Every structure is written in structure tokens, then in C-alpha cells.
């Protein structure tokens, strides 16, 4: 596993592409024409990924196309990462994958 360093010469775009290639290779599923965030925001691909790494760690993936289902999948994925020994500081927050362009902000 590559550790991300601020002074790294790898651009974030290259890091995203490398991660995407790895996720697609492990899951045998394509991102399609979705960008990195969009492809992962419903959590289905991440749940499939972790089930390939440790079969059965996630019993049920919620495939309903709703934001709540996506949040549920992300939380289950993050919990599974914890079971595999990842620390909270090494993980993202579910809100990191939300589409900010459609979020309503109150001023």
C-alpha cells in the first residue's frame, strides 16, 4: 500500500488514476465514464472491493439508488476497513464522496 505524502511528485490526478486502475482490476468492474468521486459515492464498488480482499466481510450491499443507501454502504465499508486493521486517520469521511455541486447550503 502506497502512503500518500504531501511532497510526493505524484499528482493527485495520477494517484486517482492508479487507484481507479487497482479498484477495477480487483473488482473486475469498470468506473465507466463516471469520475473518481461519482464512481465511489454510492459505496457499492467499495463494498465489492473489500469483499474481494476479504470475502464475506460485508454481508449485504445496499444497491438501491438513494443517497441513504450510499451512505449506508460507505459506513459499512469503513467499518470493514476497521476490522481489517485500518485506523480512522487512514480513512475518509463518508461526506468526502458527496456531490458538493448539488448540496444545499444555508447562509
What does the model show?
By secondary structure, this protein is an all-alpha fold. Helix content is 45%, strand content 0%. It has 4 helices and no strands. Helix 3 (44-53) packs parallel to helix 4 (67-83). The mean pLDDT is 88.
List keywords for this structure.
107 residues, mainly alpha, 4 helices
Give, in order, the helices and strands. Answer: HHHH
pLDDT averaged residue by residue: 88
Shape: globular
Main sheet: strands, sense, barrel: none
List the uncertain runs.
Answer: none
End-to-end CA span: 41 Å
Helices, by number, come to 4
The count of β-strands is 0
Oligomerization category of the chains in this entry: single chain
Using the CA coordinates, give the radius of gyration.
14 Å
Strand residue percentage: under 5%
> Can you give the helix content as a percent range?
40-55%
> Helix/strand-derived class?
mainly alpha
InterPro entries: Calponin/LIMCH1 (IPR001997), CH_dom (IPR001715), CH_dom_sf (IPR036872), LMO-7 (IPR029978), SM22_calponin (IPR003096)
Organism: Ilyodon furcidens
Domain Calponin-homology (CH): 13-107
Protein name: LIM domain only protein 7
Topology:
Layout: H1 12-27, H2 36-40, H3 44-53, H4 67-83
Domain Calponin-homology (CH): 13-107
Protein name: LIM domain only protein 7
Describe, in short, the structure shown.
By secondary structure, the chain is mostly helical. The protein has helices spanning 12-27, 36-40, 44-53, 67-83. It is globular and about 35 Å long.
Amino acid at each position: 500500500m502506497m502512503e500518500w505524502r504531501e511532497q510526493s511528485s505524484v499528482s493527485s490526478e495520477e494517484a486517482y488514476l492508479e487507484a481507479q486502475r487497482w479498484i477495477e482490476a480487483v473488482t473486475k468492474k469498470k468506473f465507466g465514464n463516471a469520475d473518481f468521486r461519482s464512481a465511489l459515492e454510492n459505496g457499492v464498488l467499495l463494498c465489492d472491493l473489500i469483499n474481494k480482499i476479504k470475502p464475506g466481510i460485508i454481508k449485504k450491499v445496499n444497491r438501491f439508488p438513494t443517497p441513504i443507501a450510499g451512505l449506508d454502504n460507505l459506513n459499512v465499508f469503513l467499518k470493514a476497513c476497521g476490522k481489517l486493521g485500518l485506523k480512522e486517520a487512514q480513512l475518509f469521511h463518508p461526506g468526502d464522496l458527496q456531490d458538493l455541486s448539488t448540496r444545499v447550503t444555508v447562509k
